[in-house]
């Protein structure tokens, strides 16, 4: 990603929520140490299409909008629905 986002070599296992039973690497901000996303290592078939991808938490990201030259929280941006399934 960038040098500002790091991940630990230790696999974590989801104990609740959407990642229940999944193994993943946590992505963290190098500056503040907060979790900003994950890389899914193993999962059930419902999340298999996300394995190996960098998945970011919208509420942890700040976006720069080129057209309006504004900085805005990603959670306030309307991202179009995109499926990664083939």
From TrEMBL:
KW Ligase (keyword) present: no
InterPro entries recorded: Mis18, Yippee/Mis18/Cereblon
Family: Belongs to the yippee family.
UniProt organism field: Oreocharis arfaki (tit berrypecker)
PANTHER family reported for this sequence: NEUROGENIC PROTEIN MASTERMIND (PTHR16431), PROTEIN MIS18-BETA (PTHR16431:SF3)
Residue intervals passing through the bilayer: 18-41
GO molecular function, one term: metal ion binding
Function per UniProt: Required for recruitment of CENPA to centromeres and normal chromosome segregation during mitosis.
Compartment annotation: Chromosome, Centromere; Nucleus
Assigned keywords, A-Z: Cell cycle, Cell division, Centromere, Chromosome, Membrane, Metal-binding, Mitosis, Nucleus, Transmembrane, Transmembrane helix, Zinc
The protein's name in its UniProt record: Protein yippee-like
Major localisation: nucleus
UniProt GO BP: cell division; CENP-A containing chromatin assembly; chromosome segregation
Residue ranges constituting the Mis18 domain according to the UniProt record: 1-66
Chain coiled-coil ranges: none
Gene Ontology CC: one annotated term: nucleus
Pfam family, one: Yippee-Mis18
